[in-house]
Amino acid sequence: FSSAFLKQMGLRKKYISLFKQAKTFKVKVSTMDAEMEFSCEVKWKGKDLFDLVCRTIGLRETWFFGLRYTVKDTYAWLKPDKRVLDQEVPKDSLITFHFLAKFFPEKVEDELVQEITQHLFFLQVKKQILDEEIFCSPEASVLLASYAVQAKYGDYDPNFHKPGFLAQDELLPKRVLMQYQMTPDMWEEKITAWYAEHRNITRDEAEMEYLKIAQDLEMYGVSYFSITQNKRDTELLLGVDAQGLHIYSPNNKLSPNKSFPWSGIRNISYSEKEFTIKPLDKKKEVFKFYSSQLRVNKLILQLCIGNHDLFMRRRKVDSIEVQQMKAQAKEEKARKKVERQILAREKQMREEAERAKEEMEHRLFQLQDEARMANEALLRSEETADLLAEKAQIAEEEAKLLAHKAAEAEHERQRLEVTALKTKEEKRLMEQKMREAEQLAVKLVEQSERRLKEADHLKQDLNEAKDAERRAKQKLLEITKSTYPVIPPPSTGPESPDRTVDMASSIRMDFKDSDMKRLSMEIERERLEYMEKSKHLQDQLKELKSEIESLKLEEQHQAGLYSLRSYTEPPYIPHSNVRNTQGEINHFMLLNISYNVFY
């Protein structure tokens, strides 16, 4: 033996001695849906631990399963007739095993009896398909996924299973997802379409349907090993399953190149790395191949023996234990079927009761809505009636008020008619006064023109008088100088030369003053007469203006009253009278301006 082998054996003995000293060791066993820990005795064999696990999970079909552990780059199955610690298990503080199906049935519906057995096979096959250890077409993958959803969620309910409810579930292999350019929602829609058709299928039935489809896949239940056929190292694959041994090309695990069914194999043996298959027919050639490790040959032989034993066992009459299990399973299925039927009837009755309840609730809601609407309509009608009554009362009051206003308007109209008649009479008198004022104004204008002409004549006469006076004074001076000589007064001194001039001036001033006084008196008298007449005329004009203003204010007041009483006929005011009144006002204003200019 090599030093490395001796070293490994020494370490192994050391671990065994340590476990023997401890008397117990801990084991963790992982199934497809649970993990368990056990405290085992050092002397326990593999069968003791395996039986403990089977009793814990309630499994009776133990011949399909085994405890698998990892050894370096491969795996191995725990041998039942050998102590656990004497095998090549990892010598860790917590030894880990995987409880898996070691052998697969030929027909799952005939061989798998217990529900736990079906469930474990379902979980393992499902994982192998998702991990792409078993090739599955996209169509079959979608169908298998629909059965997996049925097993997990039960019957499809569109009210409960909303879009996106499969978002967290792994249902399809990655290869299938990458093969088509489809979104997760599109895949979910396809799976849900199949899922909706599996109504009234229980979880066990859905898992069995899943296994029925999966057992027809080419890679189902096949364990593959790398081998070489000769010393030239021609690489091949050896497949071991429930039907026999198969030889595959490395790049094709679906179609075997050569097969050796269990019924056609006479003997299987190995020597070191060489493995020999002897056909039952001695005329056929013995098939030999080589594996990379001795451990692999041991594993292949172990799987061949187990599958061959099950193959032979299927073709014999079932044992008493199996018959009892099948009978119990049949009774259990019948009982469950009856329970399901009862449950289905109860469910149907409950659904009918719920539908009736929903209909009654819906009807109740409808009646409540109708009652509420009727109450609202009644309230609206009452409010409308109150409103109409209030409007009628208001209309009645308005009618009374309008009648009162109409009476007042009629009275006002009569008063206005009387006032209009008075106004017409006053207007006629005013027009007469205006005509008289106009005549007086014309007379005054004519008189003023005549007085102006007289004043001009007086001014002309005054000027002629002044000229005559100047000529007379000149003649008088000349006569005075010729008739009356200048006698000097007695004086002691010389006489002043201006004395004669002063005397003439005094005579001239006396004549001028007398004429001027007479003319001034006449002009003053005329001016006083004009002022009295103009004052009298101005007073008359002021009276006319005040009367016109009062008439205008009264007419405006009457017009305002008629605008407030729009429902009655407005008082009629002739436009010609208004225009005449306005023209008369303008005419008197012009007269006033002309008299002001005159003054």
TrEMBL record:
Residues 25-315 form the FERM domain. Pfam families: ERM_C, ERM_helical, FERM_C, FERM_M, FERM_N. Its main location: membrane. GO terms for molecular function: actin binding. GO terms for cellular component: plasma membrane. It is found in: Cell membrane. This is Merlin-like.
